[in-house]
């Protein structure tokens, strides 16, 4: 038996209208701020989302809005890599079944950002691909290190890599620092 939240999501996806969700948290700062409201349209199939889109999905702790930074299919199911812009953690894989909707607007007290505009579509795609390639390059570096040095720990190299990765993770945040 479905719980009330699942029933609501199913009915909402069938009607197809935009709904407003209040934000709590800072994982997408500075683009999405704590206490912003998000305009979300339902997504029936994960294939509708593109790299760079900000998706609302179900997580064990509740609803989460993060950027899609990769996609792949396996056994007739679509999986997505998702990541918050304000975190230095690696992307997480989620099943397409967890997707609830796509964020199309960010509402603030004095303004609204339309994420479907040409400018924001370009910025979001660019940011999504930035994360996508940063993750891919970090995986390649890890495999090369493992191949060259095996399991040996190299503290200086590890520290330099971590500092570089953190720096590269902070760059997209500078794109969104506007009032």
Poorly predicted regions: none
* Helix-strand pattern: HEEEEEEEEHH
Please provide the count of β strands.
Answer: 8
How many domains in all? 1
Structural class: alpha+beta
User: Under the CATH scheme, which architecture would be assigned?
Assistant: Ribbon
CATH homologous superfamily classification = Umud Fragment, subunit A
Distance between the termini: 45 Å
Instruction: Indicate the percent of residues in helices.
Output: 25-40%
Strand content: 25-35%
Which properties best describe this structure?
179 residues; alpha+beta; Umud Fragment, subunit A; 3 helices
Please outline the helices and strands.
Blueprint: H1 4-15, E1 19-22, E2 37-42, E3 54-59, E4 62-74, E5 77-83, E6 92-95, E7 99-107, E8 112-114, H2 118-149, H3 155-175
Antiparallel strand pairs: 1-2, 2-7, 3-4, 3-7, 4-5, 5-6, 7-8
Helix pairs in contact: 2-3
Short recap of the structure:
This protein is about 35% helix and about 30% strand.
Give a verbal description of the structure.
With 179 residues, the chain is of the alpha+beta class. The chain has one domain: Umud Fragment, subunit A (Ribbon). It has three helices and eight strands, in the order αββββββββαα. The protein has helices at 4-15, 118-149, 155-175, and strands spanning 19-22, 37-42, 54-59, 62-74, 77-83, 92-95, 99-107, 112-114. A hairpin with a 4-residue loop joins strand 7 (99-107) and strand 8. Helix 2 runs antiparallel to helix 3.
């Amino acid at each position: 038996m479905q719980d009330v939240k699942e029933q609501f999501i199913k009915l909402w996806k069938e009607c197809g209208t935009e709904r407003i969700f209040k934000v709590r948290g800072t994982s997408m700062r500075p683009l999405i701020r704590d206490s912003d409201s998000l305009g979300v349209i339902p997504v029936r199939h994960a294939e509708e989302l593109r790299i760079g889109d900000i998706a609302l999905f179900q997580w064990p702790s509740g609803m989460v809005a993060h950027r899609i930074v990769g996609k792949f299919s396996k056994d007739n199911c679509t999986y997505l890599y998702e990541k918050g812009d304000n975190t230095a953690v690696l992307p997480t894989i989620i099943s397409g079944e967890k997707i609830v909707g796509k964020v199309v607007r960010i509402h603030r007290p004095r303004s609204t950002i339309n994420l479907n505009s040409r400018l924001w579509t370009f910025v979001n795609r660019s940011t999504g691909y930035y994360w996508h390639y940063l993750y891919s390059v970090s995986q390649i570096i890890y495999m090369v290190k493992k191949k060259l040095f095996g399991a040996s720990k190299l503290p200086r190299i590890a520290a330099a890599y971590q500092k570089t990765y953190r720096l590269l993770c902070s760059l997209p945040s500078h794109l969104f620092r506007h009032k």
